[in-house]
Model the fold of this input.
Amino acid sequence: MKRVVAFGVFDLLHPGHLYFLEQTKKYGTHLTVVVTRDARVRQEKKHKPFFNERERLEIVSAMKWVDRAVLGDRAGEWNVLMRLKPDVICLGYDQKREWLERSQLQYQPRIVQIKPWQARKYSSTVLKWHLLR
Done:
């Protein structure tokens, strides 16, 4: 079994998220999606998510490409990757590889950056801007 892990907030789910997860699933036989915790969203993105972490976890769990969805670590922790031990980590086009260095993994999984799909239309930032204006 080839284990793949993807990370994200997945607040206000949109077609860009669907594309990301569909592409991610192609890199292995088992996809685990790590949903970012509310406190970490507030710390890193400086805003509160619209849906709370449990609601977002339930939404992501229901998606057909996702074999398992779990809540991520609390802010400042990097344990989830050590528990999951993925063969491949897929990052979104807007996610930075540098944060993986902070996780201090004892091994080197393959890291893949998924290209965006219509990012000017289907990014959470763009959608929130349209909703709030």
The longest helix spans residues 15-25. The chain has six helices and five strands.
